[in-house]
Description:
This protein is α/β, with parallel strands linked by helices. It has a single domain (about 15-315), classed as Arginase, Chain A, CATH 3.40.800.10. Helices cover about 30% and strands about 15% of the residues.
Amino acid sequence: xxxxxxxxxxxxxxxxxxxxxxxxxxxxxxxxxxxxxxxxxxxxxxxxxxxxxxxxxxxxxxxxxxxxxxxxxxxxxxxxxxxxxxxxxxxxxxxxxxxxxxxxxxxxxxxxxxxxxxxxxxxxxxxxxxxxxxxxxxxxxxxxxxxxxxxxxxxxxxxxxxxxxxxxxxxxxxxxxxxxxxxxxxxxxxxxxxxxxxxxxxxxxxxxxxxxxxxxxxxxxxxxxxxxxxxxxxxxxxxxxxxxxxxxxxxxxxxxxxxxxxxxxxxxxxxxxxxxxxxxxxxxxxxxxxxxxxxxxxxxxxxxxxxxxxxxxxxx
Length: 316
Ligand SMILES: [Mn+2]
């Protein structure tokens, strides 16, 4: 008896959502390209985010990408039509102990993905990886950033060192092609120093804590995000509540729950064109029963779904 090969998600070689693996980027032909940045040399406290990319890939085996598995009852919408291609490009090469070499390789990966016409979806890595990613987006026109995070990440430097996990948004504020930012989920005593908050506000950043967002509502939150034709989204998993995302270096109570983040991402995808995204700081060693890696994968899959649905609607 011949049995049709089912290729179920728990079988086979892991890629994000079991999407096709494309490691020769000269052959990249996709709408969305996932890539990993197994880097945690920017970590100040608990390390381990270098295992984030493969942790998220493992967690993503819960996700499916075919239209018949992508009907959403809440939205009464079927996502991931057959015309859309999502692929996994594997990981950026890392040279241990050499931050500059790692950053150069990250920039190269992002530039190549963009030059092939795909939207880069980066799997971190600690939050320092967002610095070279944003540097690599210097020639695609102005865009605004939306950051979901417990921490402001606006530290100028620590003893002169400017590329730590606490500095990506400060570095972003120095990039002339970035048209402002919204920093959502920022909370907790010690999230950042009062002078960093002052600098971020002077830059024009829209800063909202989880409590503030719950009080004004998602629609008003979306309205306050700086207007731009294009958005880059950076998601630090510690923006989520520590109870649903324990697998990270600096878990933070009082965070977002999944439905809130889903609504925010859906709203941004309706507000403008999303040119790229990263999800950082997943450290599988601290995870329990894969809840953090599965949540991370689900958030990324949702964002992909919203981006592709917008393209379907606008024909872009
Ligand atoms: Mn962060």
